[in-house]
Specification:
The complex is a heterodimer of chains A (about 70) and B (about 800). By secondary structure, chain A is mainly alpha-helical. Chain A has helices at about 1-30, 35-40, 50-65. Classes of the chains: A mainly alpha (about 70), B alpha+beta (about 800). The interface of A and B includes residues 17, 33 and 61 of A. Chain A: This is Cytochrome oxidase maturation protein, cbb3-type.
Chain lengths: ~70, ~800
């Protein structure tokens, strides 16, 4: 009976840690840590206009990818 | 006079010289143009983001951007993305702050057809994806230039991409291994506590299963590199450290699963994870400090002019270097670098050939003389006929040789690698022997297997794997503090075992610029006039005289010189309040009708006032400070010191004599220098070469260790393995001292881990090792190695 408590706690904590690890790995793969200097400065550029610009840029990219057909 | 900030670049100037534009002030039209452009585009928030940084005012001379649209260019630099869009890698010049990155990305994103612009702030490299149907690359480049930056392409070759990918892969593996190992440690604490105070088998099994769960990704994901290494090692019929790591950890893993399922004995999962993590960490340090050869060739490419001006009838037109044919007439103006070999057909002037020959004094060229590609015109406007096309010219020939030399650079196997082969086979043999002895002595199969495995685990290669990287890291840090940058950790070992050091003369032993050593004043004259005269010229001799006057004269005004002009390869003449003044070489004096005695092996600068000789300055290239002591220090390290130079024999011997070098080879071409180094290799020497110029490049690339001076040419710095930031020969001697010290440290570390093993392995063979001891011993031996490496830091301090 007691041992199930230990097993459950072990499982839960490893699971939570695993989520954090997965997020970190996702960040590395995504290139978020590639440019340490830029990353540190990124906080300066997150007002509303920047977000709008980023969203527009993404839309533009997707549109280009869909439309573009190389001959 | 009050200083005012330019509204674009934020540099301060006095108010009078500024361009007034309403409420704004600009230092130049370039800044004004950019300011208004940013305002129109709605990007003026750049200035608030930029903070206190200042920018450099924009340059106005650019290569025509239409070159970026040529097929030759796109073949070399443009790649296709997955979606079939064009991609190019650029290096952006002029990035000072995060706001600059922001501005470039925003400005490019605003352009129609630019799909993605990603700029790396750390190395200023940009990757741009665009739709060639909508926008041309030249328009993109023009935009970058319009906002005050410049861009040049670089070949993002596979090599660089691969190196980055490898590094990233290691990050991922390290993250998983560290996470799992740290979690296993607290589970292990429970295990060990249970071992001493008693624990029910049920709880023990739960802990074992949790450890099993955590150890699996460490072994198979993080440890994958070792499986790969062991496989390739076996394929080449060699026993590597990887094989030892793999057998040890895999056996321990399988055994622990067996223990867990049978619910008896102790599991070794924590040891498995620890071995992999420690050794992976050592490997990771190695990957981090590996030199990236890909970057080197990009910088070389930047130094080759990509276009030249050719004369066709009455018009001058710039064309791509590759389009120039033999017989074309090329114009070269002052300050330009020639890209193609040829022969002068009209005009005359001085050329700086120090790049290729190392000769410190400019060479005067006139009709019929040869122009060598890679040399720079100082004051000449010359028309010359190409005698070779670009691919066969000296400069590209040199670059080709360089590429070959870099690809074939000899690599000397590291001590730890050599050692680990023997170590690994011995341990594997001992483990198998132990198993059989126990099995036939009669013990149960389980017990014998466990003892055999414990031998491999305790012989843990952790300390061995950490010995080299930790010691070299300490060495790197020590060097960096003294302005000695080792680019790659492995070079420290090679440098420590070198037996010969080859030095270039100009710029390495000497200061690389002429200095006044003696002044003869025939008639007193006003120094201010001479000062003004010489400061108008960029010629190295004039610079030398100018610096001398600045040093020796305390109060010196300037004089208004009328009709000042420079006579190529002779000197300068002018007029001060009606009196004619002239400064230059013997040729100028003779033409002015002044008799001078020009018999000297040094460079002489004559100064005449009103057709009468007033002063003679003797100049020459002096050795650097403390050159003699440093050469002596190198000799004390039992190094064979050799001086190579492209300069003539007399000058070489004099410098060699002054600094105390006996072996001198003068009058060498760049290829000659490289040949000398190859010959030294053939004699069995490990050669260190120190140089600073383009003329040393080939030799630098051939040498085992290349050392560049911090103010040498960019290319020399790129090609080299070690950079001496303060340019002094003292650092050179220090670099040798540090590398030998570090190498000693590596040997000590390897010794420690071997001694450690010779104590623990017999214990394991006798069957005394339980998981707790294995884990403690692993950490302890690693700590010993790290601790020993740290010790050197203060040892070095004490000795100084």
């Amino acid at each position: 009976m007691d041992s199930w408590v230990i097993a459950m706690m072990l499982g839960a904590s490893i699971f939570l840690g695993g989520i954090a690890l997965a997020a970190f790995l996702w960040g590395i793969k995504n290139g978020q840590f590639d440019d340490e200097t830029k990353m540190m400065n990124q906080v300066q550029y997150d007002d509303e206009r920047e977000l709008n610009d980023a969203a527009n840029q993404q839309r533009k990219q997707e549109a280009a990818k869909k439309e573009y057909r190389p001959e | 006079m009050s200083k005012v900030k330019c509204d674009h670049c934020h540099l301060e100037f006095s108010d009078e010289v500024m361009i007034h534009d309403g409420e704004y002030r600009f230092c130049c039209n370039g800044c004004r143009g950019i300011f208004h452009l940013l305002k129109d585009e709605g990007l003026e928030s750049f200035y608030s983001k930029m903070g206190d940084t200042t920018l450099s005012p924009p340059s106005e001379q650019f290569e025509a951007s239409s070159n970026f649209d040529t097929p030759a260019f796109s073949e070399r630099f443009v790649t296709l993305s997955k979606e079939g869009l064009n991609q190019v890698s650029l290096v952006i010049e002029g990035i000072h702050c995060a706001a600059c990155v922001w501005l470039n990305e925003k400005a490019l994103h605003k352009m129609e057809g630019v799909i993605e612009a990603h700029i790396n702030y750390t190395n200023n490299k940009a990757r741009i994806t665009w739709n060639p149907a909508v926008v041309k690359l030249s328009a993109i480049i023009d935009m970058i230039r319009a906002i005050g930056y410049n861009a040049f392409p670089y070949d993002a070759s596979l090599q660089e991409v691969r190196a980055n990918k490898e590094r990233k892969e290691y990050y991922l593996r390290m993250a998983v291994a560290t996470f799992a190992t740290m979690n296993m440690m607290w589970i292990a604490v429970a295990q060990y506590a249970g071992y001493f105070t008693g624990i029910t088998q049920e709880i023990k099994t739960i802990l074992n299963v949790a450890e099993w769960f955590l150890a699996t990704p460490v072994l198979f994901y993080s440890g994958w590199v070792f499986y790969r290494g062991a496989y390739y090692g076996l394929k080449n019929r060699s026993v590597t450290m990887d094989l030892l790591v793999v057998t040890g950890s895999s056996l321990a893993y399988l055994y622990s699963i067996y223990i867990t399922l049978l619910e008896k004995g102790e599991a070794y999962f924590d040891s498995v994870a620890m071995i992999i993590t420690f050794v992976l960490f050592g490997k990771f340090l190695e990957v981090l400090s590996r030199k990236n050869a890909a970057d080197t060739l990009d910088v070389i490419g930047k130094h080759i002019p990509r276009e030249v001006s050719i004369v066709e009838g009455d018009t001058i037109r710039s064309v791509d270097v590759n389009e120039v044919k033999e017989g074309d007439v090329i114009v070269i103006r002052s300050g330009e670098r020639s890209a193609i070999d040829g022969e002068v057909i009209s005009g005359e002037g001085s050329f700086d050939e120090s790049n290729l020959t190392g000769e410190s004094e400019p060479i005067f060229k006139r009709m019929g003389d040869k122009i060598i590609s890679g040399t720079t015109s100082i004051d000449a406007l010359i028309h010359y006929r190409a005698t070779k096309d670009f691919a066969h010219s000296t400069l590209s020939h040199l670059v080709n040789l360089l590429e070959n030399a870099m690809a074939q650079k000899p690599s000397i196997e590291q001590l730890a690698n050599r050692l680990s082969q023997h170590f690994s086979s011995t341990i594997l043999f001992l483990a198998i022997a132990t198993f059989w002895v126990w099995y036939f002595w009669p013990h149960s199969f389980d017990r014998s297997l466990m003892v055999g495995i414990s031998v491999i685990i305790i012989a843990c290669p952790c300390a061995l794997a950490l010995a080299t990287p930790v010691a070299t890291l300490v060495g790197l840090a020590l060097g960096a503090k003294r302005g000695i940058l080792f680019k790659s950790a492995a070079q420290i070992e090679t440098m420590a075992s070198s037996s010969m050091v080859v030095l270039d003369k100009t710029g390495t032993i000497t200061q690389g610029r002429p200095e006044v050593i003696y002044a003869t004043i025939h008639h007193p004259f006003e120094k201010g006039a001479l000062y003004t005269l010489v400061s108008s010229s960029k010629h190295p001799i004039s610079r030398g005289v100018m610096e001398y006057l600045e040093r020796t004269e305390e109060q010196m005004g300037t004089a208004a010189i009328e009709e000042a002009r420079e006579i190529p390869a002779r000197g300068m003449v002018g007029r001060v309040s009606g009196v004619m003044i002239a400064g230059g070489n013997a040729l100028l004096m003779q033409e002015l009708g002044i008799e001078v005695d020009s018999a000297s092996d040094k460079s002489l600068f004559y100064y005449a006032v009103d057709h009468q000789l007033a002063a003679v300055y003797e100049l020459r290239d002096l050795p650097k400070e403390k050159a003699q002591e440093s050469i002596a220090a190198l000799k004390r390290l039992n190094l064979r010191v050799v001086m190579l130079t492209g300069d003539h024999e007399a000058a070489a011997l004099r410098v060699a004599h002054e600094v105390g070098i006996e072996e001198v080879h003068a009058h060498l071409t760049p290829e000659g220098k490289a040949a000398f180094i190859d010959q030294a290799h053939a004699e069995g020497h490990i050669v260190v070469m120190a140089g600073d110029g383009v003329n040393d490049l080939l030799a630098l690339a051939c040498a085992d260790i290349a050392i560049a001076m911090g103010n040498g040419s960019d290319i020399a710095i790129e090609v080299s393995d070690v950079v001496l930031m303060n340019d002094s020969l003292v650092s050179l001697a220090e670099a040798f001292a540090i590398s030998r010290k570090t190498y000693g440290l590596i040997k000590q570390n390897l010794g420690i881990s071997l001694v450690y093993n010779s104590i623990t392995i017999p214990l394991a063979m006798m069957g005394y090792v339980i998981p707790l001891i294995a884990a403690i011993s692993m950490s302890f031996s690693s700590l010993l190695v790290v601790g020993n490496s740290m010790r050197v830091r203060w040892l070095y301090k004490l000795r100084r």
